[in-house]
Design brief:
The protein is of the alpha/beta class. It is built from 11 helices and 14 strands. The strands form 4 sheets. It has a 7-stranded mixed β-sheet with strand order 2-10-9-6-5-3-4, with helices on both faces. It has a 3-stranded antiparallel β-sheet with strand order 11-12-14. Strand 5, helix 6 (138-148) and strand 6 form a beta-alpha-beta unit. The structure holds pyridoxal-5'-phosphate. The site of pyridoxal-5'-phosphate (PLP) has 14 residues, from helix 3 and helix 4.
C-alpha cells in the first residue's frame, strides 16, 4: 500500500519553535480578547502583506459574515457560483439573496461583462472571489460598482500574499476576507481576517467580532464572537517566518507540473498567472475530450493509487439544495461555470510534496494508468 497523498498537507513550523510561545501563554494566562500575540500578528501581517489594517478572526466564514455586517449590506448581492460554499452561505446568514453570475474562461472568476445585467434596485454589493488566488478583473469590477454605488467585498480566502500590478491584491475593493484554514497557503489551524482601508472601519469590525461591545458595558450592534485566540495568533507569527519559502516551494512544484503536463493531450494547464506575485495555492487542470478519459475517471484512477486530487469546485454552489431554486442558479445562466466544474481537477500541491511523489502523480496522468 503506497502512502496517501492529499490535495494539500498543512505546513507546520518545527514544534520546538512553538513551545516558547505556549509557555508565554501559560504564564500570562492571556488566552484571547486581543492579547499580545493577536496584536503582534496583526502588525506583522500588515507589514508582510502591504496593507493598512487587518482584523483577525476565528475563521474565514465568520469573517465573511461580519464583513457584510460591517458594511450593512442587505437585499441582493452579485456573486460567483464557482467557489466554496462559505462564500454564498455568508450571504444567507445575513438574510441576503445571492445572485449568481457566470465566470470568465481564463481566470474562472466572476465575469465583469455579465455583472451589469444582473443588477436590480435591490442590489447593494458585489462579492467576487479571487479563485485559486488568481486576481479578479478588479478595475472592471470597480468601475461597475462605482457606477451603481455598490460595495465590493472580495472573498480573498485563496489570495494570501498575492500582488497585482505590484500592490497587494487585498487593497482592492471595500473589504477583503482571508482564510487561514489548515488547507490554505498560510494557516493558523483555523483562522481568518478582514482587510480594510481605514481605522474607523477596523474599529467597527473589531467591535462586531466581540459581540458588539465598544466598552465594558455598552453593546452597539448584535455582534458575534469571531476573535482569534492567542494560540492561533502565536502560531501565525511563526508561520509567517516560513511564508516566502513555502510559496517558493509551491512555485517549483507548479513549474514541474506545467513542464510535464502541458504536453499531455487533453490536459489544459493554467496559463502562468498575470499577478505580479502569485501564491500557487492550487494547481487546477482541465480535462477535455482529447484525454481519452473523463475527469471523474482520472479522479478515480488517482484514488486507486492513494492520490486524492479534488474537484474544486464541483458541484457548483448554485447546485446545492438551498440555492437551486434561485432564478440565477439555472444552468442556462451559468454555462461556463458548469463546463469548468465538470472538467476541473486540483492536483496535490504543498511545500512538502516530494519530487518523487510528484513524478508518480505526473506519470499516472501521462500514462492514464
Ligand atoms: C473561497 C473560500 N471562501 C471561504 C472559505 C472559508 O474559510 P474558512 O474555512 O476559514 O471558514 C474558504 C475555505 O475554507 C474558501 O475556499
Amino acid at each position: 500500500m503506497s502512502k496517501k497523498i492529499y490535495v494539500t498537507n498543512p505546513f507546520l513550523p518545527p514544534l520546538e519553535e512553538f513551545l516558547p510561545s505556549l509557555e508565554k501563554i501559560w504564564e500570562s494566562r492571556v488566552l484571547t480578547n486581543g492579547g499580545p500575540f493577536h496584536q503582534e500578528l496583526e502588525a506583522k501581517l500588515c507589514d508582510y502583506l502591504g496593507i493598512e489594517h487587518i482584523s483577525l478572526f476565528t475563521n474565514g466564514t465568520i469573517a465573511l459574515v461580519t464583513a457584510l455586517q460591517a458594511l450593512r449590506i442587505s437585499g441582493e448581492v452579485i456573486t460567483t457560483p464557482y467557489s466554496f460554499v462559505a462564500t454564498s452561505h455568508s450571504l444567507i446568514w445575513n438574510s441576503i439573496k445571492p445572485v449568481f453570475v457566470d465566470i470568465e474562461p481564463e481566470t474562472f472568476n466572476l465575469d465583469p461583462k455579465l455583472i451589469e445585467s444582473a443588477i436590480t434596485p435591490a442590489t447593494t454589493a458585489i462579492m467576487p472571489v479571487h479563485c485559486y488566488g488568481v486576481p479578479c478583473d478588479v478595475k472592471a469590477i470597480k468601475k461597475i460598482a462605482d457606477n451603481y454605488n455598490l460595495k465590493i467585498i472580495y472573498d480573498a480566502a485563496h489570495a494570501f500574499g498575492v500582488k497585482h500590478e505590484g500592490e497587494s491584491l487585498l487593497n482592492y475593493g471595500d473589504l477583503s476576507v482571508l482564510s487561514f484554514h489548515a488547507t490554505k497557503v498560510f494557516n493558523t489551524f483555523e483562522g481568518g481576517a478582514i482587510v480594510c482601508p481605514d481605522a474607523a472601519t477596523k474599529k467597527r469590525i473589531d467591535n462586531l467580532k466581540n459581540f458588539g461591545f465598544i466598552d465594558e458595558t455598552t453593546v452597539v450592534a448584535p455582534g458575534i464572537n469571531g476573535k482569534m485566540s492567542e494560540i492561533n495568533a502565536a502560531l501565525g507569527l511563526l508561520q509567517l517566518k516560513y511564508a516566502d519559502t513555502a510559496i517558493q516551494k509551491r512555485s517549483d512544484i507548479a513549474t514541474l507540473y506545467r513542464q510535464a503536463l502541458s504536453k499531455v493531450n487533453g490536459v489544459i494547464v493554467p496559463s502562468p498567472s498575470k499577478a505580479s506575485r502569485y501564491n500557487h495555492s492550487y494547481y487546477p487542470i482541465l480535462i477535455d475530450q482529447g484525454f481519452g478519459m473523463s475527469r471523474d475517471e482520472l479522479y478515480d484512477l488517482l484514488k486507486k493509487y492513494d492520490i486524492f486530487a479534488r474537484r474544486y469546485f464541483y458541484p457548483l454552489i448554485s447546485e446545492h439544495p438551498m440555492y437551486r431554486s434561485l432564478s440565477s442558479a439555472k444552468r442556462a445562466n451559468l454555462p461556463l461555470a458548469h463546463k469548468i466544474s465538470n472538467q476541473i481537477l486540483c492536483l496535490p500541491i504543498y511545500p512538502d510534496l516530494s519530487q518523487e511523489d510528484q513524478t508518480r502523480i505526473i506519470s499516472i496522468i501521462t500514462n492514464r494508468a
